[in-house]
């Protein structure tokens, strides 16, 4: 096993993560659980990394199949190895490709992405890490255009961004006839600044709901909202 790589054990699957690529984060797990509530049919995970979001969607939705795109060859291999050990492997497929070069004859019912977001930031020394965190490989405008190109007429999409980068993403959506329908502000604790925003959208200009979800209480325990979303996945939360 590569140095600094570890295994994250979930209730129904496990994932090797880190080196190459990023480690699994709490925010990514929360986003995966939340996005999976809306996923169904043919799904696309853009920038799958170790395969976290794809695996969570496959667990949550027995009728869905997921194509998981990953630009970095070594990280794509890691995701493929994870999927081979996955109980949902028949509904998971890794595609090593840049999203801008990826074409599909069929449109997707659900598209999700935990995209890179750093701009004007010092480069990471590891190429896989650099691709995973720097928006020069997938800008908000690039992601918006790719979603527009690949999303079915009645499909939905979900992204995880810092609030300032989400604003740039929304500007690109406006020119494409895509709309954000719901935002969930992720906080460390109830009175903390916004860490990330989980956003869900479609081609429908519907009411934009916005609310907050703290990961922990002021006392430092996991919040009720966090526990209920992650209960199907985290071993520490009994079913």
TrEMBL record:
What is one GO biological process annotated to this record?
methylation
Q: Does the keyword Metal-binding apply?
A: no
User: Which superkingdom, per the lineage?
Assistant: Bacteria
Segments forming domain Methyltransferase small: 40-129
Q: Which GO terms describe its molecular function?
A: methyltransferase activity
Q: Which UniProt keywords apply?
A: Methyltransferase, S-adenosyl-L-methionine, Transferase
InterPro entries in the cross-refs = SAM-dependent_MTases_sf, Small_mtfrase_dom, tRNA_Adenine-N(6)_MTase
PANTHER family, per the entry = TRNA1(VAL) (ADENINE(37)-N6)-METHYLTRANSFERASE
How is this protein named in the record?
Answer: Methyltransferase
Organism whose genome encodes this protein: Aquirufa novilacunae
